[in-house]
Prior knowledge:
By secondary structure, the protein is an alpha+beta fold. The protein has helices at residues 9-15, 30-40, 106-113, 146-164, 194-211, and strands at 2-7, 19-23, 52-55, 58-59, 71-75, 88-91, 97-101, 120-127, 131-132, 135-144, 168-179, 183-191, 214-220, 225-228. Strands 6, 7, 8, 9, 10, 11, 12, 13 and 14 form a nine-stranded mixed sheet that branches. Strands 2-1-5-3-4 form a five-stranded mixed sheet.
Amino acid sequence: MKIQLLAFASAGDALGRSRLVVELPDGASLADLRSRLHRDYPDLRPLWERLAVAVDGELAGPEAPLADGAEVALLPPVSGGSGPAGASVVTEAAGRAALTEGPLNIEGILETVSADGFGAVLLFLGTVRDNHQGQSVERLDYSAYEAMALARLERIVTELEQAHGPLRLAIVHRLGPVPVGEASVAIAAASPHRAAAYEASRRALERLKAEVPIWKREHYAGGEAAWREEEPLDRP
Length: 236
């Protein structure tokens, strides 16, 4: 059987590619895939214990069975930091969870949560700093396992709206290069009173950093670059 393997961030660096077709015997498990990859790609071995592994978009245990055509994603710890170019790719199920390339449309994001009965409208922006641990940062490059990231963002929006309602919540994260000073993520929350909006915004950011497969690569003034992989992915 054939497995479609996706490798993100440092896992992709270790494989030397982001996509790979792996042939395995029928009835193979993730443990069998791990053995094959360790044999063929020794640079992946020291990273494996840090990885989460998803099968068809859901996190899976080390002995999970595999089926022909399964999509297996190798997911390093996420950054924990904070469609066509310039247009948001919005998931309609939640309506306010999106990934986008290009600058964030802040006014548009606020419009998605505003309502006459909601007197408290809160906006959080995560922007790119010009330094990290003594190094001068020029930009961040964001990448994502997009299908899984959008599903996780939808789930966060839906669950927090249910937990803190009446509430409207929007989370939009930027992908690709983001220069210093520009926003990489926006979280907007609106409710009749401020307490629910503050709590939902805070929880949305915490869950985004822990649950959503988005990675960032820092580019420094000296020309070096490094993945910021700090938070192991959590099951929601």
